[in-house]
Amino acid sequence: MKLFLAILFFALPEIATAEAREPIHKDDVVVVPLRGEVAPSLLAFLRRAVKTAESNEASAIIFEMNTYGGRLDTATDIVNALNQTKIPTYTFINTNAGSAGALIAIATQHIYMSPVSAIGAAAPILPTGEDLPATAKEKTISYWSALVRGSAIKNGHNPDIAEAFMNKEKEVKIGDRVVHPKGAVLTLNAQEATERINDKPLLAEATVDSIADLTKKAGLKGRLATIEPTGFEQIAFWITAVAPLLLLGGILGAYLEFKIPGATLPGIISAICFALFFLGHYLAGLAGWEVVALFILGIVLVLIEILFFAHSTIVFGVLGVFLMLASLLWTMVDRYPGQNFFPTGKMLAMPLLNMFIAIVGSIIVIALLARYLPRTSILPPLRLDRFKSAGSIPCWRAATVCDRARTDARNAGHHGHRLATQRQSAFRRSRC
């Protein structure tokens, strides 16, 4: 236990301060990876990276992009942040710049693409993959069309190309040539995006094989310095992927804490699992602190049920369990601003799947522990002499004594009868 706490104590400062391994100096070229889903955690990382580059007077920022898109509201904040950047910005599309990624790339001044890559298909949809309702879709496309056109003009890109990424009714025409007819949203591969029309590239300036190749073709002379997400930013990326495991660990830890009298490590592990679960989803922008308060309230109600109303009512316990499950479920729901308060069935699909995996896994493991744990040295035998001075034992421990008495009677037969009788007598003398 002391070793575990020592490791945690020394690891947390390292996690919190992990950034670029090399310091950033004046005139360096800063490389910022933009990978995975466009989410609030990515926005927080990007803002920190841009501020770090500007404060150290870097000569340029290169965003290495590989994303299929994500939240539109987060993309709005990223676009606004990039359009306010005071140093030259480059995007290296290393495979994918889909949906929100395309809109972010438009907000940089220079775009380069790897030979096998694509950009576009930025039509707004619901988190479930369905189309927006007609009125909402019209309003969203109207607003975003104006936003991306302004962003494209500011950064020297063709505004018609930018609008066609999200508006299927937009035709792209350069001179007498129709580059893209209306009827579908625009997506460009590297060869199409770099095609030169009237001596200007359609969108991307060139295809490159790597960041180093980009710096050569763009004429950037500074030393390359990479800014990576900090430990806490990385927590937000991976915790949402292992949410069922954290829930499983929290539930099993709580079970073992109540099952093994005097043990504290299972309770600590349970608390850490639930804390990481809520912290990761908070950093990812999926939940606020109100769900933590709801979870704690549920725990309090369950404890009230156990300590004060164990034989009179189940209202507090049932309500507490409901609040705990509701808070865990609500934490995983990806709810967008402006949507209805109550999530739809499809919005609940993935959270319910994670919850189902955690609960079923917990039931299986608890069943195995209940069968085999009493036969191991992990669960110490309950000695009655610990409670002789008090004259009685607590109710919850007395129940454990009675259960063990029955087990002893079954396993030991006639020879275990005396021990079973002693423990059952202790149960009868207990106060609840």
Task: Identify the notable features of this structure and list them briefly.
432 residues, alpha/beta, 3 domains, eight-stranded mixed β-sheet, two-stranded antiparallel sheet, 54% helix, elongated, disordered N terminus, disordered C terminus
What does this structure look like?
This protein is of the alpha/beta class. The chain has three domains: 21-229, Alpha-Beta Complex (2-enoyl-CoA Hydratase, Chain A, domain 1); 233-375, no CATH class; 384-429. It has 16 helices and twelve strands. Strands 1, 2, 3, 4, 5, 8, 11 and 12 form an eight-stranded mixed β-sheet that branches. The chain has a two-stranded antiparallel sheet with strand order 6-7. Strands 9-10 form a two-stranded antiparallel ribbon. Strand 3, helix 4 and strand 4 (110-113) form a beta-alpha-beta unit. Helix 2 packs parallel to helix 3 (72-83), helix 9 (231-239) packs across helix 11 (265-283) and helix 10 runs parallel beside helix 14. The chain is elongated. Residues 1-21, 381-401 and 426-432 have low confidence and may be disordered.
What is the count of helical runs? 16
Q: Which runs of at least 5 residues are low in confidence (pLDDT < 50)?
A: 1-21, 381-401, 426-432
- Overall spatial form: elongated
Q: Write down the CATH class of the largest domain.
A: Alpha Beta
Element string (H = helix, E = strand)? HEHEHEHEEHHEEEHEEEHEHHHHHHHH
CATH-level-4 superfamily name of the largest domain? 2-enoyl-CoA Hydratase, Chain A, domain 1
CATH topology type of the largest domain:
2-enoyl-CoA Hydratase, Chain A, domain 1
Q: Quote the distance from N terminus to C terminus.
A: 32 Å
Counted beta strands = 12
Work out the strand percent: 5-15%
- The CATH architecture assignment of the largest domain turns out to be Alpha-Beta Complex
Domain count, please report it: 3
Radius of gyration, taken over Cα atoms and rounded to an integer in Å:
30 Å
**Helix content range:** 40-55%
Biggest sheet descriptor = 8 strands, mixed
